[in-house]
Every structure is written in C-alpha cells, then in structure tokens.
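Per your request, structure below.
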C-alpha cells in the first residue's frame, strides 16, 4: 500500500477476535467448567433482567412481601445481576478470561449466598429462597476453582 492509498477498514464481522474463537461445541468440550460457568452467567443475566420489571410477581415465590421498597430493592439487585453476569460471560468468551473478573464474580456469588441466607434467618425470605442461595454458593465454589486454575493457583497471580 502506498502513502496515497487509504487504508481499508476491516469489516466488523472479520475482526482478529474471530480467528481466535473456536466453535461452540469445540469450546464447550475443550473446557467444560468454563462452559458451565458461561451457562450460569447467561442464567444470571436472564434472571436479573426478569427481576427488574417482574419483581412484584417473583417476591411472593420466595416468601417476601412485594412492598414498594422490596420491589425497588429486588429490581436494583436484578440490575446488578445483569451487569455482573454479563461481565462474567464477556470474560469467559474471551480467548484468555480475566482472573480478576472471575475472582470478583465468585465473591459476588458468595456474598449473594450470605445475603439470602441472612434474609431467611431474619424472616425476610422463606426457606425456599435457600435453593437460590445454595445455587449461588455452588457457583461461587466453581468460580473459585476456575479462578485458581486460570491464575496459576496463586493469589499473587492476580496482583492481589
């Protein structure tokens, strides 16, 4: 290319990122834990997105009163679920996932377990909400296992 010829832009659908992404089947069989975490991230985004507009209908299912304050809080939590789940999914789809994102997603899931558990103990939620809490705990454990694997198994590997 000469100095007088303009550089041709790369079409959006032919970025260098595509060349590094294997097909879905190859990706899931190559790293099943990563695939499971990506599926959980999708579930987190979807359930969070449902919580925002439909919290009033969901709250009674977990034994909470759908007061305006509870609906607002539940919707706010749903918005954060969309953000954290989306961030986790985004990093898992990268060629090299960010250990920091995986670590902090695990911290968020562990915190969600604790918060729901405290809510059950305080009578805010019924014991059925523990199903959600234990799903979050299991997810946190899987995230910490994956984090140790991608960070070399050392806390120092993430700069912490």
């Amino acid at each position: 290319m000469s100095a007088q010829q303009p550089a041709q832009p790369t079409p959006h659908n032919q970025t260098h990122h595509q060349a590094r992404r294997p097909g879905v089947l190859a990706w899931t069989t190559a790293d099943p834990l990563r695939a499971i975490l990506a599926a959980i991230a999708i579930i987190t985004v979807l359930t969070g997105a449902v919580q925002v507009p439909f919290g009033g209908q969901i709250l009674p299912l977990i034994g909470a009163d759908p007061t305006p304050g509870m609906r607002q809080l539940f919707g706010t939590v749903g918005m954060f679920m969309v953000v954290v789940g989306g961030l986790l999914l985004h990093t898992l789809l990268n060629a090299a996932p960010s250990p920091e994102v995986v670590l902090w997603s695990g911290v968020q899931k562990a915190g969600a377990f604790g918060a729901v558990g405290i809510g059950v103990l305080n009578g805010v939620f019924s014991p059925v909400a523990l199903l959600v809490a234990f799903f979050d705990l299991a997810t946190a454990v899987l995230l910490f296992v994956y984090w140790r694997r991608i960070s070399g198994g050392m806390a120092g590997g993430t700069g912490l």
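The chain is about 70% helix and 0% strand.

Regards,
D.
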